[in-house]
Amino acid sequence: MMQDSNIKELQWDSEFFSIKIGRIDKFLINDETFDTLLFRFIDSDYKLLYIFDDINKIQPTVNLKNCVLKEVDTKILFEKKLDAIDFKNNDEIQILNDFTLEDEIDLYNLALESGHLSRYKTDNLFKSGEFERFYKMWIKNSLNKSIADDIFIYKENNRIEGFVSLKYSGEYCTVGLIAVSPKLRGKQIGEKLMKKCFSLGKQKGCSILYVATQLQNQGACRFYQKFDMNINEQKKIYHLWKI
Q1: Is the pLDDT of residue 84 over 50?
Q2: How are strands ordered across the β-sheet holding 67-81?
């Protein structure tokens, strides 16, 4: 079995997808070490590696038998300093406390919309239905507060038409998922949801808010830039599959 401090075994991912999955942060190691790890991958019981690299690096080229390397994402992490945020109340945006099965279904359907460029959808080597199952679990774990502290929602006709999940972590907070029904886009629902995150984040003592998206999602990038959010980091993500 492959054991190396440069390879992090991803326990949750491995259990969820029922294959052994690891991660390599290539930007932290030199090319020689990286090549050594890739060749050792062949003799390991890993099935899939997530490889994170700096955006300005050349796509890694490997000649590994029975493997497929796919560039699946360019992740952009935006940040917003919360030092000049006001606390104007917006009654249209509510905190979701008690919820019904219909609420959970609404959140799940919106989450699928938000994840249309997710690497779990665009990488066709994942089994059919895994993308949907992944986002269903993401919603469940947000509702049970294991990966989110608050969910803010916008409702029309007693249906959730927009939501955002938020996690507080000391001096910073992180948006998990944000989505608005396509039929309501252009009505500033997303802006109201984000402003709620800014306000609540500051009230919780956070000084910075983070949110990640894909470079390919130009609509989301423009949306975050409207709030004068800065790019904290950009990383290319590859999937290396053993087939």
Answers
A1: yes
A2: 7-9, 21-25, 48-54, 230-242, 67-81, 208-214, 172-180, 159-169, 150-156, 93-95
CA gap 30, 155 in Å, rounded: 50
| Rounded (5°) CA angle 124-106-101 | 115
Say if residue 4's pLDDT is above 80.
no
Instruction: Enumerate the β-bridge partners of residue 164.
Output: 152, 178
Q: What CA–CA distance (Å, rounded) separates 118 from 214?
A: 8
pLDDT tens profile 167-218: 999 999 999 999 999 999 889 999 999 999 999 999 999 999 999 999 999 9
Give backbone dihedrals phi and psi of 126, rounded to 5 degrees, phi first: -70, 145
- What one-character-per-residue DSSP string does the chain give? ----TTEEE-HHHHHHHTS-EEEEEGGGS-HHHHHHHHHHHHTSS--EEEEEEETTSPPP----TTEEEEEEEEEEEEEEE-TT------TTEEE--S--HHHHHHHHHHHHHHTTT-HHHH-TTSPTTHHHHHHHHHHHHHHTTSS-SEEEEEEETTEEEEEEEEEEETTEEEEEEEEE-GGGTTSSHHHHHHHHHHHHHHHTT-SEEEEEEETT-HHHHHHHHTTTPEEEEEEEEEEEEE-
